[in-house]
Amino acid sequence: MATLKEELEKLMELQILDAQLLEINNQLKELPGQINILEKEDILLGKELEEFEKAFTHFKVERRQKDNELKAIEEQIKNLQSRTNDVKTNKEYQAIQKEISALKEKKSSLEDEILLLMDNDEQFKEKEKQLKVKAEEYKKKKQEKQKDLENTINQLKENKKILEQKRQEYLPQIDKAILNLYIRVKQSKKDGIAICRITKGSNGNICGGCYVYIPGYLTEKIKRKTEIVQCENCGRILIE
Ligand SMILES: [Zn+2]
Q1: Which is deepest, 16, 42, 99, 182, by most CB within 10 Å?
Q2: What is the extent of the structural domain holding 200?
Q3: CATH number for the domain harbouring residue 86
Q4: Å from CA of 168 to ligand 1 middle
Q5: Tally of CB atoms within 10 A around 238
Q6: What is the per-residue pLDDT across 196-227, written as a single tens digit (0 to 9) for each?
Q7: CA of 210 relative to ligand 1 center, distance in Å
Q8: How much is the pLDDT for 203?
Q9: How far is the CA of 174 from the centre of ligand 1 (A)?
């Protein structure tokens, strides 16, 4: 039979394992979220590019329409000009000239619009290039980060398995009642510390968990090591 001292020392070691396991579990909870964030950002960039392509396509259609309009006007002007050779009267001639000059005016303003669209076209192409580069670079970065995260997760899972195995080896070495007390206290503590050593303060011994002074009679009990002693303030199991 192990002595109480030995069991409590084992309990201290178990607590270290539990703390490591808690840390691993926290990380295992958090890391997949980081992968999701990467994924979401990637989707957003993809959507941005998609929206842009839609606008660009719309723009190209508009440009093509203007080009066709210009061609049609040029054709009309050419037809009218060829008709001037066949006109019989001055009146008729002037009417055609008037029509031609109206069309030429229309043509000129259309050409201005097209020039402007050509400028925009350059800007669109530049922006398209930038967005594509951005999306591609992000994809690359995302893949690298994802791989890193997955490696970390696998490593953590491996460590967790080892720690859990070790934990299983500890359990039979500790009295069930002590173990249950440990688990109960641990569950009530945010820091997960259920057993701690006493430390020397200027006026006596202090609980290593809540830093409150321990009365002399309790210190005596702790030193005797014949029974479990809990801090009167925080309830943690105390050892020397
Ligand atoms: Zn305490």
Answers
A1: 182
A2: 177-239
A3: 1.10.287.1490
A4: 28
A5: 25
A6: 999 998 889 999 999 999 999 999 999 999 99
A7: 4
A8: 86
A9: 22
Cα-to-centroid distance, 171 and ligand 1 (Å): 25
Ligand 1 centre and the CA of 11: distance in Å?
A: 17
Are residues 145 and 37 part of one domain? yes
CA–centroid distance, residue 12 to ligand 1 (Å): 16
User: What is the chain's mean pLDDT, rounded?
Assistant: 94
Question: Which pLDDT score is estimated for 152?
Answer: 97
Under the banding of pLDDT at 50, 70 and 90, the label for residue 29 is very high
Residue 11 lies in a domain: no
The structural domain count of the chain equals 2
Ligand 1 centre to CA of 198 (Å) is 9
Please check whether residues 59 and 113 belong to one and the same domain: yes
Cα(69) to ligand 1 centroid in Å equals 88
Q: What angle do CA 119, 122, 125 make, to 5 degrees?
A: 150
Average pLDDT (27-56) is 94
Looking at this protein, which amino acid is placed at residue 145? K
Ligand 1 center to residue 149 CA distance, Å? 39
Rounded to two decimals, the pTM is 0.72
94 within some domain? yes
Q: In this structure, is residue 218 part of a structural domain?
A: yes
Closest CA to 131 of 49, 212, 50, 63: 49
Residue 8 lies in a domain: no
What is the distance in A from the centroid of ligand 1 to the CA of 236? 6
Query: Taking the alpha carbons of 152, 156, 162, 166 in that order, is the dihedral positive or negative?
Result: positive
Tokens 């820091």, residue?
A: 191
pLDDT at residue 1 greater than cutoff 70: no
DSSP SS3 for 228: coil
User: Does 97 share its domain with 137?
Assistant: yes
Of residues 84 and 128, which shows the higher confidence score? 128
